[in-house]
Amino acid sequence: MGNETKDHAALAEAFIRDEERVDWHDGALWWIRQKRDIASRQIPEWEALREAASRIKSHVLSNLHDYLLEFEANATRNGIRVHWAADAAEHNAIVYSILKEKGIRQMVKSKSMLTEECHLNEYLIERGVDVINSDLGEYIQQLDNEPPSHIVLPCIHKRKEEIGEIFHEHLGTEKGVSDPTTLTRFARRHLRDVFITRRAALTGVNFAVAETGEYIVCTNEGNADMGAHLSEVQIASMGIEKIVPKKAHMGIFLRLLARSATGQPITIYSSHFKKPREGQEMHLILVDMGRSRQLGRPEFRDSLKCIKCGACMNTCPVYRKSGGLSYHNTISGPIGAILAPNLDMKKHADLPFASTLCGSCSNVCPVKINIHDQLYQWRQVIVKEGYAAHTKVLGMKAMAWTFSSPGSFSTLGKAGRWVLNNIPVAVNNRFNPWFRQRDMPEGPKESFSEWYARNHRPGGAVDPAPKASSDLQSIQPE
Amino acid sequence: MNVALFLPCYVDQFYPQVGISTLQLLEKLGCTVTYPLNQTCCGQPMANSGFEKLAQDCNELFVKNFAGFDAVVCPSGSCTLHVKDHLHSHDREGDAQQIRSHIYELTEFLTDVLKVERLPARFMHKVGLHQSCHGQRGLHLSQMSELVAPPFSKPEKLLTMVEGLELIALDRKDECCGFGGTFCVFEEAVSSRMGIDRVEDHVRNGAEVLTGGDMSCLMHLEGIVRRKKLPVRVMHIAEILNQD
Questions:
Q1: CA–centroid distance for A388 within its chain
Q2: CA-CA distance, A273 to A281, in Å (whole number)?
Q3: Which of A406, B9, B175, B212 could form a Cys-Cys staple with B130, CB 3.0–4.6 A?
Q4: What is the pLDDT of residues A211-228, one digit of tens each?
Q5: Which pTM does this prediction carry?
Q6: Which domain holds residue A427?
Q7: How close, in Å, is residue A168 to chain B by CA atoms?
Q8: What does the alpha-carbon distance between residue A222 and residue A134 come to, in Å, rounded to a whole number?
Q9: Helix orientation angle between A180-197 and A160-171, rounded to the nearest 10 degrees
Q10: Largest distance between two CA atoms of chain B
Q11: Which phi and psi angles does B74 have, rounded to 5°?
């Protein structure tokens, strides 16, 4: 789709051209933000819960080495085979070797952003292994050969009519059917067959408890459980930052997760997996993939606290107007914009700039990640590392020079106002992005500084100023 | 009280009436106001674009202009926040520190320092308040809708002191307008769409006047209002509080 070469601004502009789509995309996500507000207000100690969760995660990040080893020892004792993967290539190779040993050529997979980041599906398909995503949204995205646009709501950018068309094309539903219940029932019948026939199931991991060696998978559809319970080989892929020290801590995180994500009190299924069934094999892969590098960046380490609730996406007005795919990264939105530059700074140099730094993301974050401050910090790093456009560098240098010299500032300001007044076409043209949808401010004859120098007398008294605002009677509200 | 008036660079150049209203309001409330004539900018446009390092000369100039006052007052939450968070000096860090802890956005200066309880202002219009993010979420000028915490609002408190003024309720009371500094040109499509949606919220809910504490957001919203010829007037909060 050419997304590799276009930056966020260009991809967002294309998304915004469909005004009606932006209306409901924005509306649907704002509705979820409001559900989150209502749910959080039912917990009087909400802010204390966020603080506790944030501190537990701080503690985990400071002691990650010890907790990972504790988790590995306990999980192994429970009968889980624990693997370590430094990057996507190692992770994918481990999954394939497990399947190959058992002669398995078909696998069902529940939602896992980590395996999306690793491009596991493509890797396995190239090796003759068929993978089906069992989360309904991810299933739809897979049929349409698109990555998820949102970590919780993978196909939120699609209209129901578009989904009906995809089902018609790939699954043979009747043309024109777009009723969500009908389509969901059809998908369920199809997926039931998948669950029964797949010998291997892979799930993501929401939390892993160091003291017990168990891991927790949260879904609303029960699809992770269906796959796992019917499988002969169960595989779980987790980022190394998913550890919590104690099982008791789940009382904090599970209360925060679903309320932040969708406004539900809890996910429908919060399943604890501790040991394999008789005759079943259970594998768990601990994946680093840039996380230890991020842990080593003091200003960005807190990004690893993320519990992937998606609240920052739902509240972000830039995300709501521009759609998740405009971020050209598996994890989109504000959190994606602070995680992605760690993975590939050049490719994702645009993302920290895809924000107004309004700060709403940091306020909804259940683990209190200072997302907007990190966006600001990434901008400094990206410029320092030389990934800013040459023209931008020149412009900024000119601006810095102007602002450090009061004389040139007032001269240039005066010249600018004169141009606005006398040759407006010089700025009111298609080369000025401001002017595309906005008028320029009027250029007053006199700046405040000039007025002040002319009118102000020592001692504080000033001459009566011209009436600050012109005639208010001209307002004609409808 | 010996107060220095700091005006954002674009207010000095494009919105002198906002500077005049702020100055008159502060003097009306008994402050001795100085406007250092060599002032330019807080350096935020460079810093927010990732060029914090280029803002150093600008910072030194700022310290030179604004050291030694009881308070620095600025009719912009965004510029105030930037100075509070990022003003540093090579040789005069003590002065920079003093400025960082004594700079106030106009409405918080009125409610928290001058402790204004009444204003001699009259304004017979329906007004919609645009909460600019840096003032609200950065300086905590009002409670944020994301948090589970008791409501308050410094700008609303002042607006309710104005005789005849009717504050309207918005569908989304603290959503960003999409100005975002250089974001407004580098992400023009998103910025404009966000601004259009904000303006429409005010118009839909019957605002005759759209006001706020940051002229940068208002310049962006006014640009849209004028392009679309919408029946709403854009004014800085200082202009309304200074009405008599």
A1: 23
A2: 12
A3: B212
A4: 999 999 999 999 999 999
A5: 0.94
A6: 405-460
A7: 33
A8: 10
A9: 40
A10: 52
A11: -135, 130
| Domains held by chain B: number | 2
Query: Which of B224, B55, B105 lies closest to A380, judged by CA?
Result: B55
Interface touch B49/A383, C-beta < 8 Å:
yes
CA distance linking residue A154 with residue A110, whole number of Å: 12
Question: What value of ipTM does the predicted structure carry?
Answer: 0.96
Residues B94 and B159 in one domain: no
User: Strand, helix or coil at B165?
Assistant: coil
| Domain-ending residue, one of B113, B136, B151 | B113
CA distance A259 to B49: 34
Shared domain check, B62 and B146: no
Residue B27 belongs to a domain:
yes
A14 domain-assigned? no
**B14 close contact with A: CB closer than 8 A:** yes
Partner B, chain A 38-97, Cβ-Cβ below 8 Å: 40-41, 43-44, 46-47
Residue A74 belongs to some domain of the structure: yes
Residue B143 counted as domain residue:
yes
Indicate if A104 and A244 belong to the same structural domain. yes
Sheet of A243-244, strands arranged across: A243-244, A207-209, A214-219, A269-273
* Structure confidence by residue, pLDDT tens digits, A48-70: 999 999 999 999 999 999 999 99
Q: Is A84 helix (H, G, I), strand (E, B) or coil?
A: strand
- A145: distance to nearest CA of chain B, Å? 26
Q: Kindly report, residue by residue over A309-342, the tens digit of the pLDDT.
A: 999 999 999 999 999 999 999 999 999 999 999 9
Contacts of B74 in chain A (CB under 8 A): none
Place of tokens 């998304």: A15
Query: In which domain, by residue range, is B38 found?
Result: 2-113
